[in-house]
Amino acid sequence: MSETTSISVASAWRLAATHALPVSIAIVVAVFAVAEPAFLTPDNLLGIVRQIALVGIMAAASTFVIMTGGVDLSVGPVLALAGLVAYFVLGAGYPVPVAVLAGLGIGLFIGLLNGAAIGFLDLPPIIVTLASLSIVRGAALIVGGPDLHSIRDQPIYSAIGTGSLAGIPLPVWIFAAVVLLLVFVQVRTPFGLLVAALGENERAARLSGHRTRITKMLVYGLSATGAALAGIVLSSQVHTASATYGPFGTELDVIAAIVVGGTSIMGGNGSVVRTVVGVLFLGVVSNGMNLLNVPIDVQLIAKGAIIVVALGLSARR
Amino acid sequence: MIPAAIREPVIVGRGLTQVYGAATVLDDVDIRIDPGEVRALIGSNGAGKSTLVKILTGAVRPTAGTVEVVGQQVHLGSPSEMIGRGVACIYQHSNLAPALSVLDNIFLGRNPTRRLGLVDRPRQRREAQALLARHGIQIDLDVPAGSLPAVKQKEVEILKALALDAKVLLMDEPTGWLASADVANLHATIRKLKGQGVGILYISHMLDEVFAICDTMTILRDGRVVAENAVADISRARAIELMIGRQLAAQTKEASEARVSRMTGSVRLKARGLARNGVFSGVDIDLNAGEILCITGLIGSKRTELVRAIFGCESLDAGSIEIDGAPIAVKSPSEAIAAGIGLVPEDRHRDGLMLGLSVSENLMMATLGRFRRGLLLDRGGMATAARRLIASLNVKPASETRQVRLLSGGNQQKVLLGKWLDGRPGILMLDEPTVGVDVGAKAEIYDILRAARDEGAAILVVSSDIEEVLAIGDRVGVMSAGRLVSVHPAKALTASSLVTMIGEAA
Amino acid sequence: MAGRYSILPLVGFFILVFAFFSFTATRFASATNIENLLSGFSFVAMLAVGQAFPILLRGIDLSVGAIVAVVGMIVFDLSLIFGVPGWLILPVALLAGAAAGALNGVLVVYVRLQPFIATLATLAAYRGLVYSISGRQLVPELSTTPLRDPWIIGLETYFDVGRFLGISSIVKLPWIPLSFVALLALVAVLQLVLSATRFGRDLFAVGGNLEGARLAGINVARVTVAAYAISGACAALAALFLVARLTTATEALGIGAELTAIAAAVVGGVSLQGGVGTVVGPAIGAFLLGVILLGLTLLGVSQFVQQIMTGVILLAAISYDRLLALRVRRAGPSL
Prior knowledge:
Largest sheet of chain B: 6 strands, mixed
Number of domains of chain B: 2
Number of domains of chain C: 1
Structural class of chain B: alpha/beta
Strand order of the largest sheet of chain B: 6-7-8-3-9-10
Order of helices and strands of chain C: HHHHHHHEHEHHHHHHH
Number of helices of chain B: 18
Shape of chain C: globular
Shape of chain B: globular
CATH architecture of the largest domain in chain B: 3-Layer(aba) Sandwich
Largest interface: A-C, 43 and 44 residues
Helix content of chain B: 25-40%
CATH topology of chain C: ABC transporter involved in vitamin B12 uptake, BtuC
Structural class of chain C: mainly alpha
CATH class of chain C: Mainly Alpha
Number of strands of chain B: 22
Oligomer: heterotrimer
Number of helices of chain C: 15
CATH architecture of chain C: Orthogonal Bundle
CATH topology of the largest domain in chain B: Rossmann fold
Distance between the termini of chain C: 24 Å
Largest sheet of chain C: 2 strands, antiparallel
Number of strands of chain C: 2
């Protein structure tokens, strides 16, 4: 076998793998549009984006974690706790910005703790964030109990999740803003390059004089802050805060969006933009299946299968 | 004695070829070992020796070629098949299961069993004890292998191979980790096996050993067999010439003759009494501006550990380091870099490169600080600097946006070198800088290093490649068992005198 | 024997914690409470024992909770909808669990997925499967019907040891649940497999030195699939006893069980670095967790704090594991 053929086979795979997702989105959209005319209406399409905004915010913010070869399983409880904290701060009579900052702050704090255990103590990310999933959920239940807390008479806070600007719901704007910010960070800052370097080759990054532990810590801080933001948007959308929000499976949705987008679970290769594509893909699939009245169990199985296929493809690369 | 006419070779490889991406590591290699023959496999770094061994053990499947064991064609790329046919190997690196006992490790993957898959421990122990007695080895069979010192672990690996009743035994640098008394023991074992009709392939850098123990030799250069001789028919000088090629040999000679004394520069890095418990001790180094100091020695002489400790990867237990006369304590690579030290690590894929990132990103990885503009990264400045470096290093293809993964080994190594040349660290340490690099790129890398030296850089090169050491070194240090035994001006050395010196130091 | 040294401190710590709660919490050392501990945490111990196998291979199995639910639902369907006799259901259930586990192994070996992502994906898929085969939804009128098959309900049996020994008049001994006896048998068998069979040796070799194992001719793929299958079968066994106890199966069976199982395995001295561990350890680890959680309950601590404690114990256990690994690396030969 000559060199050129082996290279072109490899690059053909790469080409297929990088363009597989947009192509499959197009195919899925076409199938749904034919099967269910209601799918391709502007209302439904906007609905899809609004539905995916929450997972999208979390997935975009968690992309860097996956890029460093780690994982954050604790996003669900963080989402719940942030909403609760915002609720209580509002209840104590503080203005909305303070409540939002408090919610984001608790997320950042938890994330930095996760990151410190992973970066500085060299503990495995799966276990650390699994433990923190349990701890944060317990903490949220202690703070808020198992009940729903309704957020009333807070028009400004409620606007975060229910308002709209130029006909587009605010959560979608927030999602877009988060994505733009993170893309900018990834492409234009030293931190972004360092995240990729760390995931590509941590030893080499350290031998190049980079403080990899701090970078790791920040990455988990960012992920949890994203989850907290999603929690605030959610509590504003549904006018309630509860310790049970972000149930088991939330972290799976987030990870699924990232890896289906094509960010390598082994670290390094990845981008926020790909995550957005992954979020869109899963959103379209789930919306289409809902319209076609596909039962929830088949949807769950399909989700598992999609992850396996997407990762199986990327393992071939 | 079996008449030669009906003696069937124990193993025959034909047309073995291995291609990795753009690089041909092994090119149409034939090899044959008769029963009771000890065949040496020699060649400089990157000649393809370990790839050939990996094919013969089934660890990798070759791109092309066939292997026959005792006249039977085997399915390639399957370790269990090779073991089943009686091909055993003692590897350079550990292949033990650390939590299992020595006894279990000796029979790893083929423990004798009774009913229900239960391991037949009495039988296992009986066989192991017989083995120990036969080869005069003493070792506690019941301790976990991971708790043994490195030398003892190697003995377990040897036992593992011996327990197979192998027809073919491959030994990859078997003495790199042994003291001379143990080497004698090992050679006695080899003679015994030879008497039993085992065919042995002996891979070694140590020509002394090759001439002492081997009957025949196969010399590899750049993935090809360049000579097959009876050891008795070849001189040591001729063997070296064949290993490195006449042209490079001449260049080496020329370079060492043209060399001027370069000890006149100021001392950039001064180390005294460097020690790391149980690894190396009492190492003094004076590295001058405008010189290349090479440190050579056997595998396992702790040269890599030494440069890694100087670079702050591992902590020092004793000793002091001065840079330009100022004492400095380096606790991490970032501090070493701040002090003007650079390190090109031995394993460029594991420690050096970010394969998925671009050439420009890799080149600037150690000096990113230069391109910080507040919170932002000056991508334009990075690209400009990268293009300049790519031109001066002659990296091909000349594209700063290309993924490093897509470059050849030699060009990857140039990128790794270039990482330190633009930031101009005054002190550059390189660990085996040309392993797995083709001859052309090798010469270019030498030129780059010489040019950096002539501009006043202080360069320390760790290398096992005698010819490399003589080609670029201004001074040569010999390290053995964690000590820097001696330092000589390169001008006074020849390949054979250096080889002798390394052998004596061990 | 591999890893035995890590058992003694664990047992010591277990006794210490047990003594602490015996003194501080009234009713802790009572027969009823011990009975609760034995019956409530034998399931957890079964899951932890199974979990030890993937972790020994440097893997992890996040899908055990979902496998518990799938197997539970299979038992429900076979017994109530199809009227299959219990003696047939038991082996079918174990096989189903082993098959679900083996699929994890196949994804890890042949699709080359990272263990946590493979088992996270099957977690979702198996949970979905539970809903699609849920007899409670397929035949709603059965949803309140309890399981009655004697083979299944019989699993929830207690042995009055005190009476058997004739000392029940002197001291009140806890009744021993069958699930605990089954656990002891499981531990005995699997410990034997681990320490005395060829498969066990191969498992330690693959977990401790993957490349070395491959070069020694060990069939790494088979060992891996088998390890995940054992984890699945253990989950199935746990499901059987759980269903017998509840006399029904629900869709939510085993949610979050993987967390406790992993925690118990790590607490029990199975190293996440692979290649080091036992089967006895995770079983003790599970009961240690049980002692702490039950003790806290008796002290009046809320169940939410227990959730926090589970996480904290898991963190403490991996930190300890990490510490041991560091110490070994410093003491051992540098490579």
